[in-house]
Amino acid sequence: MATVNGLRVFIYVTLWLFAAVLLGLTAHRIHYTTHIPPGDPLNGGADFYDPIIAELLASSALTLLWIPWVVHVLTRDAEYGFLGTFAGEILGLFCLFVLWLVGAAIATTFWGDLSWCHQFLPCRILTVIVAFAWMGWILIFTLLIISLLFAFMNSSFGRPLHGRYDPRGSTYGAQRY
After folding, report:
1. What are the φ and ψ backbone dihedral angles of 110, each rounded to 5 degrees?
2. Is the pLDDT of residue 145 over 90?
3. If we measure between CA atoms, which residue out of 137, 111, 3, 116 comes closest to residue 52?
4. CB under 8 Å to 51, separation ≥6 — which residues?
């Protein structure tokens, strides 16, 4: 039987895969623009880097570090303080939400329509970077909505993220609402 936690873990794993792909693509783009081959017409042959690509790289790296922690907390019955609560997850997801939204939006304004240069690999990579940035943002938005709804409906913003409470073995069991 499917559970909310099972759905959340599945979405987190999918997001981890998207973030790993985005990390690789953005690292490739930074390497390419900081080591432009001789004769390449991009930027007159001068090395450079796109700050928004660096922001997307940092966003994907932070996401890759955040997800194993959250999946660990979701699949265990232990309590880990504030970061192991719904409020901690929502705060972390909100930070990632803003980072991914800014990165995807700015990348879209720069490289929203590169159909004129799809015969070149750098243009195709930029198109895929924009696509994965938006797909990652959609998954983060979905996780944020699911967590907010679950926490609101169960009055559990300060309770453990895994959603399983043992009144005898939990510091949260003594709370009365």
Report:
1. -80, -45
2. yes
3. 111
4. none
SS3 call for 47 = coil
Q: State the amino acid at position 55 in one-letter form.
A: E
134 touches 59 (CB < 8 A):
no
CA–CA distance, 82 with 80 (Å, rounded to integer): 7
166: amino acid identity, one letter: D
How many residues belong to the chain?
177
Q: Which residue bears the tokens 């922690």?
A: 69
pLDDT at position 164: 66
Torsion sign, CA atoms 85, 88, 94, 97: negative
What is the CB neighbour count within 10 angstroms for residue 97? 16
Model pTM score: 0.88
Query: Among residues 101, 106, 104, 99, which one has the least CA distance to residue 129?
Result: 104
